[in-house]
Amino acid sequence: MPQGHGLEWIAGKGTPMTWSTRQLAELAGTTLKTVRHYHEIGLLDEPDRAANGYKRYGVTHLVRLLRIRRLVDLGVPLSDIPSVEAADERSEEILRVLDAELAASIARQQRMRRELAAILDNRASIDLPADFTTLADGLPEAQRSLLLAYSSILNPSAMSALREQLSGPRSDVAAQFEALPEDAPEEVRRHIARRLAPEVREQQKDHPILRDLEASSRRGAAITQSVIVKALTEFYNEAHLDVLRRVHALLAEDDDGPACRREG
Predict the structure, then answer these.
(1) Least CB-packed of 76, 135, 232, 247 within 10 Å?
(2) How much of the chain is helix, strand and coil, in % rounded to 5?
(3) Burial letters 167-200, b for 16+ CB under 10 A, else e
(4) CA 144 to chain centre
(5) Other CB atoms within 10 Å distance of the CB of residue 239
(6) Digit-coded pLDDT (tens) for 102-121
(7) Residue 57, φ and ψ in degrees, nearest 5
């Protein structure tokens, strides 16, 4: 039994008032076009018409329309509404799938908020993959750009190894390497390469997955190689690249044994 206000409207009021399509849409908080679409697909029954041909909607149509709108607002596809309302064998599956999608969406939005907070706190973090934002202040711009490029090819394990590797303090020789001008003399390049090689060797021992980036890639070999080569040549100058070639040669000599050890 309804309680409170409204009871006085029941007695002696004659035939209940009906509404036009536009009025029904306004009451339900939707549009005329939407109501007509629901008629077309069979979700909302057509009402009786007045003598002048206009549709006459009653409260049952309003309740039906509000129920449809509620399910739509919850994300239920129009095609699934009859199953959900009928509580048939597909109903629970539909709702559980929808719940899982909403949970994934919420998780994605929470991650986006964390990333936005990191960017607001430090604009430099926009130049890094999402999981690397705490390293923004400690990395040179070229290295940040390299990491962002590498994130397009490397698998999560390789990216995690890179993050762990870069989380430690930067050595003096690493800082000297990053600061190399393009016209750095031969002896300076040779000196940095010889100091950098043991450090790279130690990093490879601690993170074996980084020894072969091609094997740690989510892409094909050709694409992986093109990203690595283009990124290195774009973000490092010729002195950097020369030092990297020297380091690679020194590491190869170590692998071949003492008899072959010499600088290339």
Answers:
(1) 232
(2) 70, 0, 30
(3) eeeeeebbebbeebeeebeeeebeebbebbbeeb
(4) 19
(5) 19
(6) 999 999 999 888 888 877 88
(7) -95, 140
